[in-house]
């Protein structure tokens, strides 16, 4: 039997063991003992299973219940914050990197639901039961919501992806109406350069839940539960999407 979200598999087995006997009579029935075992198998799965958009096809991204496994195809380069074109090495060896999510986040939002990497291969975004966090491979630091209430009010659905330095997510929110039966459905954009806070986000309201998100260049593609496909053109104005 599979566990929640497909990360674990419970396997029960039963086998019969014939007890040793010193009897030499062929007609003597040897006693049979039953032995049962319960095994728990842990699995990793590709991030594209729940999140079909892949920000960088050069890198393999796997996820477990509380960790992200990233395989880098080569030594990555990034630019510094002054945007002067200076190339900086991430300083990591080619191969697998195991990235543990912050305990403060995963303790309340276990397990991981979505994970994605940006086109540069430098930044990760990961969502659990509520909210999300993002990670810089260069600084090795996570950024979390400063307001725990805002984090609890967001449940990522449909996908999580990057557009330039912005994190795009489909979500349900109850921040304005606490009635659990009347959640709002939104697309939200957050910049990795600012604090994770709703005051720095941009949102577009939808009429039904989001099933899937994808992006092509500067076009966001949204497939919703009411079987509509919507296209959004993304552009920057005064540094904001």
Can you walk me through this structure?
The chain is elongated, with a radius of gyration of 24 Å. The chain has two domains: 1-18 and 29-43, no CATH class; 44-233, no CATH class. The chain is mainly beta. The chain has helices spanning 103-109, 148-152, and strands spanning 8-18, 32-42, 45-46, 60-63, 67-72, 77-79, 87-89, 95-100, 114-117, 123-127, 133-136, 141-143, 154-163, 166-173, 184-191, 202-206, 210-216, 219-224, 229-233. The strands form six sheets. A four-stranded antiparallel β-sheet has the order 3-4-5-8, with no helix packed on it. InterPro entries: Ric1.
Structural class: mainly beta
C-alpha end-to-end distance? 44 Å
Helix % is: under 10%
Q: Unreliable runs, pLDDT <50, ≥5 residues?
A: 77-93
Average pLDDT works out at: 83
Approximately what portion of the residues adopt beta-strand conformation? Answer: over 45%
Largest sheet: number of strands, sense, barrel closure: 4 strands, antiparallel
Indicate how many domains the architecture comprises: 2
DSSP helical segment count: 2
Strands of the widest sheet, in order across it, are 3-4-5-8
* Strand and helix order: EEEEEEEEHEEEEHEEEEEEE
Number of strands: 19
Q: Could you tell me the radius of gyration in angstroms?
A: 24 Å
Shape: elongated
Please give a quick description of this structure:
InterPro entries: Ric1. By secondary structure, the protein is mostly beta strands.
Core attributes:
mainly beta, 2 helices, 5% helix, elongated, four-stranded antiparallel sheet, 241 residues, 19 strands
